[in-house]
Structure formats: C-alpha cells, structure tokens
Design goal:
By secondary structure, the chain is α+β, with helices and mostly antiparallel strands. The protein is 29% helix and 18% strand. The chain is built from twelve helices and 17 strands. A hairpin with a 2-residue loop joins β16 and β17. α9 packs across α11. The relative contact order is 0.09.
C-alpha cells in the first residue's frame, strides 16, 4: 500500500504535501499553487521553509513543533498506533485544527461539530493532552495539559475537525489552582500594558479550575472563524523538535538575540507602530518582573499574514514560576549573558537590547515605561485569594528593585512564597505603607 501524501493548506491555497521520505521521516514538498501565489524564497509558512525550498530536517523542525511534547506526544502516538516520530501518521488524524492557519490532511473527523454537555466536557478535560482524537483533528504543542474547543452561545463545541477552535483550556487540580490563577494574573498585567488583546479567565468546570484563553490566531467574524497563521520562534529558527533545543542551555541558537534578529524584517521607514524589537524588550521586562523563567523559543511567536507580512505575536504563556520555594531561577534565555533571574538588572536589559539594534537611551526609556506600567497594573488588577498574598506583591517588589538599579530579587528572611504576605492592596485602593517589597 502506498504511503499517504497529506495535503497542506494555508490561507485557502494548497501549498504542498507532507509525505514519508526514507526511513519513515517526513518531507514537505511545495505545490505549484503556492509558487504561483507567493514569490520564491518568501516565507508565508515559516522562516525556516521559504517557498520552493525544503529538506527532511526543516520539515520535521517545523511540522513536528506543531505537536504535543514528551509523554503527551507518546500518548497521542500510542492512541494512533504509530511511532511518536511518524509525523505523517499523526497528522493524518490530528491535522485539521493546529496552531496557526494550517490544515493538514482530511483528519479523522467524528461527524458534525456538536455542543458538549457538562459531563462530556468534564471527561474531555480529565483526558486533556494537547489533542482531541474523539473530537477529531486537534493538536497543540507543549508539555502542559490543554484542550482546544470552540466557544459559542455560552457553551463549548467540539469542532470535529471541521470547525476551528477558538479557545485553549488548561485544567488543573484544585490543589494547583494557584498555578492557573498566577498565569491568568500575569496575562492580565500584559493586557493592561497592551501587550496582548485576547481575553482569559479561570472558571471551575466539574471540580477542576480551568484557565480559559482566547486564541490570538483566530478571528471570529460575521461569516465564521478565520484562522491566522503563526509560527513560534523555535520553528522560525529551525531548532530541532522533541528535545531541549528550545532552551538556550540546550541550543545556543535559542537566544533572545536570535529571536530579535527574526523581527522587523518587513518594517520600513513609513511604519508608524512600535518596532517589534522594542515590544520584545517590553515582553522581556515583564517576564523578569513576573518571575517567568520559562520564556523559551516556543513562547515567542510570529504572526504571518496572507500578504506575506509578519509581526511579533502577542505576549502569552507566562507565569510567576520563580516565586515558588524550590522554583527554577535559571532563565530559559539569558539576558546579556546573565542566566539567573535573581541577578538581572536594568543594565543587563539595556545591554541585551543594544545587541538587537535598540539604542541604549531608547532601551532605558522603554524599560522605565514598562516598569511604571507594571506597578500600576498590580495596584489595579484583582487577584484570586489563592495568589493575592504573594503574586502581586512579588511582581511589584521585582519591579521596584529593577527601577532602583538593583537585581530583580526580593530579599526576605524566608523564600518569598513562604512569607505570610508580600502585600496586595485592593483594586483601586491606595497602596499601604509597609516595608519589604511595598513602596516606602
């Protein structure tokens, strides 16, 4: 029997086929339709796969990075009775609803989209693994448990491979509610800084707290749901998938400088908006302030539009990880050579931005504006009781240290998370006068 050639579509164009090459590896081949629509060596799909070019290595780097990671990939492959490195076999089942605007193959759909009852929704969340086999054709990258569904009429719809998902759902146990509340709080700070536009919230479904995130690569219109293409920077930089190459410690090519070099390639002197490299600097400042040590290459993305333009995607996937008692303090990507978040200063941030081509004076201005805005956001945003005693005060303390020229480290007798309270005023209330991370 001949191995299947999976059709790949992007923005209404048949862009190519995904096939098995020698030894079961995957190879993408561009179609004549794609070559007719976009110039040769342009990058509507990926910076690592220019139109008309391909190889097994770049194919697997890009397409493999669309799938879950680690044990979740193994579970998906086992459920499909294929190897975890069999991209064609996996995408034949889950290629209909992916990150970005790609669709791959027909997908094994289970009928028309259907509204989920509460019991079925709870069951799907209990199995959430970055893919939906029963619901048909859905997959997301990453290690964290997650599920993609479509929100409509106040309920949840399984798209069955024919209706694009609109939201990502991340369930946790009640004991771990603080994890999703912390992530949602950081997203709220970013929203206050206009670093993202999508909505997010935490709700209880069954007995599980669930972080619900509106997908920024979807747009709901009067005629349906539009997919917007995106690729993460691990894909854009052609980093090998399935290992630790998304971290700088695993691959020197996974650096903030490499991310910055992929930005502003379409920018001209006539563009009025803020350059993406300055926006990346704001993202980096917020990541340090929030203690998000997991800002690796897959946690930055590019939006790629149908006219060939690209821009930095909104801020996403950030949590105050460094706040924990045994928290990881090493940054996924170093800042001007500094790997420990507790030693990062404004000077490190300025020096890092200077290597991207941002002038030092402008970098200091962007950093100062961002720090001021973060402090204001932590004074205004409400925080769930599971994080209210620590997360807002921790972020504010980090910012105050940075603004004072100190490293982003709160000095407390105990680990910050073990301190009874780091200080959190009620939304809109005047800041209390206290020592520690609060302003004097």
């Amino acid at each position: 029997m001949t191995d299947p050639a999976l059709r790949v579509d992007l923005y209404g164009t048949h862009v190519g086929e995904l096939t098995r090459a020698s030894r079961g590896r995957a190879l993408f081949a561009w179609s004549n339709d794609a070559i007719a629509r976009w110039p040769l060596r342009s990058t509507p799909l990926s910076a690592s796969l220019p139109v008309g070019t391909s190889s097994v290595e770049t194919t697997e780097s890009f397409f493999g990075a669309l799938l879950p990671e680690g044990r979740w990939l193994d579970r998906l492959a086992n459920a499909l009775h294929v190897g975890s490195n069999d991209l064609v076999g996996i995408f034949d089942a889950v290629g209909a609803d992916l990150a970005g605007a790609l669709t791959i193959g027909a997908g094994r759909t289970a009928g028309e989209p259907r509204m989920l009852g509460e019991a079925e929704l709870v069951e799907l969340l209990s199995q959430a693994a970055g893919y939906v086999l029963g619901g048909g054709g859905s997959a997301l990258p990453g290690f964290q448990r997650k599920l993609t569904l479509t929100r409509a009429a106040g309920g949840w719809i399984a798209g069955n491979g024919t209706l694009a998902s609109t939201h990502i759902l991340k369930p946790v146990s009640e004991a771990n509610r603080h994890l999703v509340e912390g992530e949602n709080y950081v997203l709220g700070v970013a929203r206050s800084l206009r670093l993202l536009h999508f909505d997010s919230w935490v709700e209880t479904i069954g007995r599980s707290p669930v972080l619900v995130i509106e997908r920024y690569d979807r747009r709901v219109t009067a005629t349906g749901i539009e997919r917007i293409h995106q690729e993460d920077l691990a894909q854009a930089l052609a980093l090998p998938w399935g290992g630790d190459d998304k971290f700088e410690r695993g691959n020197p090519g996974a650096s903030l400088a490499a991310v910055a070099a992929a930005l502003d390639r379409d920018r001209s002197i006539f563009d009025r908006g803020e350059p993406d490299r300055e926006k990346l600097l704001r993202y980096t400042v917020l990541n340090v302030a929030a203690g998000n040590t997991d800002a690796h290459a897959k946690n930055f993305s590019l939006l790629r539009f149908d006219d060939g333009r690209s821009r930095l995607a909104p801020f996403y996937n950030a949590a105050p990880l460094a706040l924990g008692s045994e928290a990881p303090l090493d940054l996924a990507m170093s800042i001007s050579g500094e790997r420990a978040i507790t030693r990062v200063t404004v000077d490190h941030l300025v020096d890092e931005a200077r290597t991207w081509g941002v002038e030092s004076s402008r970098a200091r201005e962007v950093i100062a504006q961002t720090l001021d805005a973060v402090i204001e956001a932590t004074r205004q945003l409400p925080a769930h009781e599971s994080i209210s005693k620590h997360v807002p005060g921790y972020i504010r303390g980090q910012v105050q240290n940075l603004a004072a020229g100190k490293p982003a480290r709160i000095d407390t007798p105990l680990s910050p998370i073990l301190t009874p309270r780091l200080g959190t005023p009620s939304p809109g209330a005047p800041a209390p006068k206290r020592s520690g991370p609060e302003e004097p």
